[in-house]
Description:
The protein is α+β, with helices and mostly antiparallel strands. The protein folds into 4 domains: about 5-40 and about 135-215, Distorted Sandwich (Calcium-transporting ATPase, cytoplasmic transduction domain A), CATH 2.70.150; about 225-295 and about 660-865, Calcium-transporting ATPase, transmembrane domain (Up-down Bundle), CATH 1.20.1110; about 305-325 and about 470-655, Rossmann fold (3-Layer(aba) Sandwich), CATH 3.40.50.1000; about 330-465, 3-Layer(aba) Sandwich (Calcium-transporting ATPase, cytoplasmic domain N), CATH 3.40.1110.10. Helix content is about 55%, strand content about 15%. It contains 33 helices and 24 strands. An 8-stranded mixed β-sheet has the order 10-24-23-22-11-19-21-20, sandwiched between helices. Strand 22, helix 26 and strand 23 (about 630) form a beta-alpha-beta unit. Helix 5 packs antiparallel against helix 6 (about 80-115), helix 5 runs antiparallel to helix 10 (about 260-270) and helix 28 runs antiparallel to helix 31. The longest helix is centred in the last third of the chain and has 42 residues, at about 655-695. The chain is elongated and about 110 Å long. Mean pLDDT is about 85; it is low at about 215-220 and about 565-575.
Amino acid sequence: MSVEKYASMSIEEVTEELGTSLERGLSEEEAQRRLKEYGYNEIPEKEEPLWHRIARRFWGPIPWMIEAAAILSALVGRWEDFTIIMVMLFVNAGVDFWQEHKALSALKVLKEKLARKALVLRDGKWKLVDARFLVPGDVIKLKIGDIVPADVKLDHGGEYILVDQSALTGESLPVTKKPGDVAYANSIVKKGEMIGIVIATGLKTYFGKTVQLVARAEREERSHFQQMVIKIGNFLIMLTIILIGIMVAVELSRGANPFELLEFSLVLTVAAIPVALPAVLTITMAVGALYLAKKKVIVSKLSSIEELAGVDVLCSDKTGTLTMNKMTIADPYVVKGYKVEDLMLFAALASKEENRDPIEIPIFEWLKKRGLYNELKECKQLKFVPFDPVRKRTEAIVKCKGKKMFVTKGAPQVIIDMVNKEEIDEEEVLKKVEEFAQNGFRTLAVAMKELLEEELHLVGLIPLFDPPRPDSKEAIEDAKKFGVEVKMVTGDNVAIAKYIAKILGIGDKIISMREIKRGEEEYVILAEVIAKALLRVAEGLSPAEAERKAKEIAEMVKKELEGRPLLPGIVRAHEDEIARIIEEANGFAEVFPEDKYLIVEKIQERGHIVGMTGDGVNDAPALKKADCGIAVSNATDAARAAADMVLLTPGLRVIIDGFKVARQIFKRMESYAIYRIAETIRVLFFMTLSILIFQFYPITTIMIILLALLNDIPILTIAYDNVEIPQRPVRWIYGELEMLSFWLGTAGVLSSFTLFYLLMTYWMLPKDLIQTIMFTKLIVAGHFTIFNTRTKDWFWKKPWPSRALYFATQGTSFLGTVVGVYGLGLMTPMGWGWAAFIWGYAFVWFLFNDAVKKTFLKLYRRNTKI
């Protein structure tokens, strides 16, 4: 049956049609049977066939060049070259396939860890299951922040829910859904909670049908680093084409064999262009993302790692991240005429026990310990409106002992504004709230009235203490050591925020967001006053006459403002001043979710890379705005969807550990990029210079192929290298990366050309032996270069290379040496004497390159003040 048909039916008809019960839901056995019948509740992703993934490795500009070189080798009868070129083609394809497979596997694991959950009623019990296991007929609960997991016929549990379905219909404003309406899959619950019946899943949902009708092509946005690498890669490709074009033109003018020259040029182009660069970066990020997952940090996309590595300001929620989110109740304040038992009972009636809200749990526990829980159960909750961050309170209509009552609990300032002030000593109540706050207690105010009464009565105040996590102070100190400033963000008042900040060592500069917003409101007041003045002066006047009256307008504005209560300090602050104040603050109190966006925006304006934590649906805009949005453990679906980073465990320590690991991943990518660019410069310029000056190919086509294979395969282990954690947030310093690569590449050209010159003019060895020696030198020296680029410090300092990197590079260097020593039918044997000389020569230049690196970095950073 269609969703439209279900939408027109009553809830009783839907229940009967789907064979379910609103009281017990489906049985587990029936749910499993329906899962087999209807399939998983998901939109199947179109997977690329295996044969297509394999075939793709042989189609494209680089494979075409290799294939063309192989064909040319066959045409001129050079079957040894043909065989080696084909080996290169298949090895390149295999390595590329393996890299993609590894990255896809990593993304699959991350996706599974980010799977949405749904609260479903099975066999009369509520349980949390993966949303993909929902079936038609399941009874589920929707609450604020949930992404609706399927098409749901709403029934009870609330008066209405407010749903954002802009992703489906394009409507910019949230839509009110009442009992009997249908909430569509992939819409977001912005307010309220309700129970309903699943009527469609997967491709049968409204969203699923839309996906079938519209071809969607989602492409992951490239990170800054990936864009930079592509830019440099394109430059190197152009450089390669130009230099090889010059070489080909000169050689043709000298009468070279066109077929052999074209074959050589194609192979040299493939070897020179850093074709593996994007793939190696992807595998490095994928391996790093899996390691982050083991640390209970899930990145939503691989490119998020760069943002994590660069964060220098972290705005952290207090509750649950810096504190335990496990409340304990101190001695309450009770208004005259009520008892403590009344206060706790009314607070429980304005709560929902099954929601397991950390603020409400100790209230129910208090009643149970004192034998009052049965009295609570004698009351019936007729209507419940859950807490939302804007209203800052819950409310319920209940029936107790035949009486209907309205009860509410929430932030003291909100509840006190609602109650009858004549019944209380407002000054005393506010003083008590402040006293609780100064001792670190969060306060809940509770009020009630009989349903027919007009006035609401304050019952009392419940002080709750949320202790800091044992590791929070240490984590904050650790963050400071690594260049990350932690700013506390809380909805509590300034006194509570200062108390917790003092315990944790965050700092005492805590500002109220209410004061910040009042500062903005001052501009509104001023604008209104100016508008009034303009209307008075300019009405009926020409623009020229109005302009002449400018001074008069200014005087009128000044008089209008006289006598207005202007708050000191911040209220007159300019936008830049507000940004400065926010930047210098250690924390923010009285924060609403929408305030987080302003905090992020202003800190970014001051040039910082900002991380922001969040858990609610209203936090989503700030999480998207932040350079690194962090959804804390147990965050809503909406917050998780907006975040770059999702935590699977609570606390600040896991965030700081995530930043550290991201920096290590970043450094691995950077070291490989420098290495590969330097190698391209080294090989390309050396080959071109040698051919133009000496009219001789310093290495053969087969040697170029072997060089490319022996260089690219072991370097994949860079993803597993040991890297020191940078003490400061890391960002791409384009000039430094490009120039360091250039100087190391230039040193490599000098090293290779010096040896080639000596072999040709001083020792005057046979040309075939010279080619073998140069081949071996390029292999050994190339692998030494990675040990120059893997650290910005001297190569011998810790952390030392990983075993994988060390043995892979040295093993292939030794393999290349063995080929050079014995020839193996591929080249002229050179013997172990020359092999020993080459290793010694390469090592001396390796030491020189390390000195070049250190000298360059010292001078560059001094001149650029890095």
